[in-house]
Amino acid sequence: MKTAEQDVTHQSVTSFPISFQHQFNRAGERTSNVRPRATLLVNTPSGTTPLHRHRGWYALAVVLVIGLGLLWRSRLLPLSSFIAKYGGDALWALVVFLGFGFLFTRLSTLRVALLALCFAWSIEFLQLYHAHWIDFIRSSRLGHLVLGSTFNTPDLLAYVVGITIGAIVELSHRSTHHKSTNSA
Length: 184
Description:
The protein has 184 residues and is mostly helical. It has helices at residues 55-73, 81-103, 109-126, 132-138, 141-147, 153-183, and strands spanning 9-14, 19-24, 37-39. The chain has a 3-stranded antiparallel β-sheet, with no helix packed on it. Helix 2 (81-103) crosses helix 3 (109-126).
């Protein structure tokens, strides 16, 4: 026969941005010998699995998108200057999204997208700043690819497009993966 102390259940209490996991006895009281454990989790509806990105796939995706971006801007593809410029900016923002997804494997897609957008827009607005030291960094090929050189308002929209594409692909992959694991 179980006592109330032996029948311990786990309950997650979710609040933005941290979830606490407590142990409760049958009477609904928190057990005194267990301290709450704070973990940064994705807020998911009950019954769904939390998002967990696989870093290996995200690293591979970053490398592939960087390669595509370099090809995109190389003039080897017959693209109009508009598509070459803003498509390259969207691919750069997609790499930022994937990079944040690589770093924060359990953060929700929306939060990763918002972090990526804030980062991308910060880099764009940083292009309004022209001190000697940062212009020296921008004068290198890598510095120019990462930091850009001149502020351009339409770039902000291109970043939104690239990050949105990343979020849509991630959400659609998650939904198809979730459906296939539930049907199995």
